[in-house]
Amino acid sequence: MNRSGGGGKARVQHCGSAPNRLLSLLSQADYERLRPHLEYTALRYRQSLYRANKPIGFIYFIETGVGSLVNTMTNGDAAEVGTIGNEGVVGLPLLLLDERSPTRVYVQVPGAGLRMKASLFRRELARSASMRKVMLHSAACNQLHSLEQRCCRWLLMTHDRMGSNEFLLTQEFLAMMLGVQRTGVTVAAGALQRAGLINYKRGNVTIRDRRGLERRTCECYGVAKREFDRLLTNRPKRRDAIIPDFQRR
Length: 249
Known about the structure:
Number of strands: 10
Number of domains: 2
Mean pLDDT: 78
Radius of gyration: 18 Å
Helix content: 25-40%
CATH class of the largest domain: Mainly Beta
Largest sheet: 5 strands, antiparallel
Distance between the termini: 6 Å
Structural class: alpha+beta
Low-confidence stretches: 1-7, 13-17, 138-145, 244-249
CATH topology of the largest domain: Jelly Rolls
Shape: globular
Order of helices and strands: EHHEEEEHEHHHEHHEEHHE
């Protein structure tokens, strides 16, 4: 399969499993509306996908990696208000007929995905009620819990989306995502490491005991995961799913 150098457009074809679960649920007709405009893109660590209160230029369908929605308070403090992986879409305000967001989105865990110009996406979305219905299932809530519970939740959600027991997660970014000081992250991660649930060294996390993390996390993790699984697996899927050609090599 061919992909133009420098992040050019890649032809998107079908295969038996979909890197982006939401995109795979579109009807064949809806997918064909988007397909000519989908462009493969690498997602670099700390890359900005869109900025707060600025026009959203692209919508992203993440295949691997995690995007974090971050809200900056008037005092300058930043806190995570949501995360997005291969079950959803980056650019939710566009689904709600808005072109801006009060939050910004960064790449927290690097990976890859497909992107599309926001103007083209809005045009195709306006043409299809079925596409709007599928896309709007990509929202989830964030609850307030203890720091350790929230840390477990973030680790589990990242683990779900990466498909690997090891991933990059710096102390600085985890502190920002959880809205705490770095010393708080040190305490929470240290407790999880002493319990044998994770290894955490120089910004690299290794999940050692997922079931242990699930027992310690807040209840909203299980609720959100079950709901996403219900929405994204109980619907009839297209016969074929979508990946860029270059991944078929």
